[in-house]
Design a protein that fits this description.
The protein is of the alpha+beta class and 402 residues long. The protein has three domains: 22-182, ABC-type transport auxiliary lipoprotein component (Rossmann fold, 3-Layer(aba) Sandwich); 190-325, Beta Barrel (Porin); 330-401. The protein has nine helices and 13 strands. The chain has helices at 2-21, 28-46, 71-86, 96-106, 116-126, 167-174, 184-190, 327-370, 376-401; strands spanning 59-63, 91-93, 130-139, 142-151, 157-166, 195-206, 212-222, 228-239, 242-256, 261-275, 281-297, 300-311, 314-325. The strands form two sheets. An eight-stranded antiparallel β-barrel has the order 6-7-8-9-10-11-12-13. A five-stranded mixed sheet has the order 2-1-3-4-5, with helices on both faces. It is flat, with a radius of gyration of 30 Å.
Length: 402
């Protein structure tokens, strides 16, 4: 029985290892995004002094051409990596003109295989702190992308990532057919994208043009499969001098013209309330619909929409414009803001502790000594003194540990 358990354990272990050692292939676009996300995370998290410019709070990065069997494939990879790196406000990229000048000056073929020493030389020439380079090579029935990030000053490896790519995504570049992004499959995929409506505003008017108002809304939309969308929006506004709010589940279709422009339409069920200044509140459930166009620009964009709503015997029109974003871009940007706030607070808080703590440490005993024994003033003095000790200790300790 013991041997049987041991064999089962070894079989399970080998199965888990095989999943790790022989990962499944992915699309070219997903592979590039995966590599970009991992490398960016490692560069930021390591926070090595030699690569971080503390005066501007940025890191200067050079992305070299990848060693591929196709120049078009290398350009495609570099272009997409550049897109993802530019979204991080802490990274500054060396432009292609400077890299081309480095290639000419150093008499180096940028599309050939690059070793660490060559990458460092190019990085120094263009004034970068970090260099990204890599290759795409056949790997059985797949292709393997290898990417590396090293520091220019000392050649420290910040990140090294490998991902496997489907062969059918690479073949169009090698056979010089249309790249994947221009194919119908990719246009179809563009209709299968989740997005957030960060903020949207509209103006409203009734069918008889007598009533009017306006509102703003926030919401989110998910596409479980191409051309279909589910959403939930929350709206607040006023109409005919009454305030209202609503939550609206919706379902509809998304039809892409291309990767940038999409037409959509939704059936909506509004669940809300009206409230006037005299305190009267009326609940309502009413059908509505909207139609409009989405305009995407590298994960950010805007939409223009028309919305029709039936409320009792009144039909209202609304025309609005909204700002939209892919969820990962929105939360990444929000994360960068909070990261910057955190860094600022981590610099300021120790000094605040010392500036507040030292006077409290000095003032506490004076208050304590001047107050009658057992009085509330004596208690206050003790609290101030011990608070001063705690704050001063915290502030000094943080400053020393830095």
């Amino acid at each position: 029985m013991g041997k049987m358990k041991k064999k089962i354990f070894i079989s399970v272990l080998l199965t888990l290892l095989s999943v790790k050692v022989f990962p499944q292939s992915m699309t070219l676009d997903n592979a590039i995004k995966e590599v970009a996300d991992r490398i960016i995370e490692q560069i930021i998290l390591r926070n090595i002094p030699e690569v971080f410019d503390f005066t501007s709070n940025t890191i200067k990065v050079a992305i070299l051409d990848f060693d591929c069997s196709s120049k078009a494939l290398s350009q495609y990879i570099v272009s997409d990596l550049t897109k993802y790196f530019l979204r991080n406000m802490k990274l500054v990229l060396v432009d292609r003109q400077n890299l081309d000048r480095a290639r000419k000056e150093l008499k180096f073929n940028m599309s050939s295989e690059v070793d660490d020493n060559t990458a460092q030389s190019i990085g120094k020439f263009v004034g970068a702190q970090v260099v990204i380079f890599g290759s795409v090579k056949p790997f059985g029935k797949m292709y393997r992308m290898e990417a590396r990030a090293i520091t220019v000053e000392k050649g420290i490896i910040l990140a090294q990532e490998n991902v496997n790519i489907r062969e059918k995504d690479i073949k169009p570049f090698i056979t010089k057919t249309s790249p994947p992004k221009s194919s119908w499959n990719n246009i179809t995929n563009s209709a299968n994208r989740n997005y957030l409506e960060i903020i949207s505003g509209d103006v409203q008017f009734s069918d008889d043009l007598i009533g009017g108002g306006g509102s703003f809304l926030v919401g989110g939309h998910v596409s479980p499969f191409p051309f279909f969308s589910l959403g939930l929006e929350t709206k607040f506004g006023s109409f005919n001098n009454e305030f209202y709010g609503s939550a609206s589940p919706m379902a509809g279709l998304v039809l892409p013209f291309n990767n940038t422009i999409k037409l959509y339409g939704d059936g909506i069920l509004e669940l809300g309330y009206f409230g006037s200044l005299n305190g009267l509140i009326n609940n309502w459930v009413t059908p509505a619909f909207d139609t409009g166009m989405l305009f995407w620009f590298d994960g950010l964009g805007f939409d223009i929409k028309y919305r029709g709503t039936w409320y009792k015997d009144t039909y209202t029109h609304s025309i609005g414009v909204g700002f939209i974003s892919r969820p990962e871009i929105f939360f990444e940007g929000a994360g960068n803001v909070f990261y910057d706030i955190g860094r600022f607070l981590s610099d300021v808080i120790p000094w605040v502790c010392v500036v507040v703590g030292v006077p409290a440490l000095v003032a506490g005993p004076f208050i304590n000594g001047a107050a009658p024994s057992g009085s509330s003033q004596e208690l206050a003095g003790s609290i101030i003194m011990y608070s001063g000790v705690a704050l001063t200790t915290i502030g000094v300790t943080i400053l020393i540990l830095r």
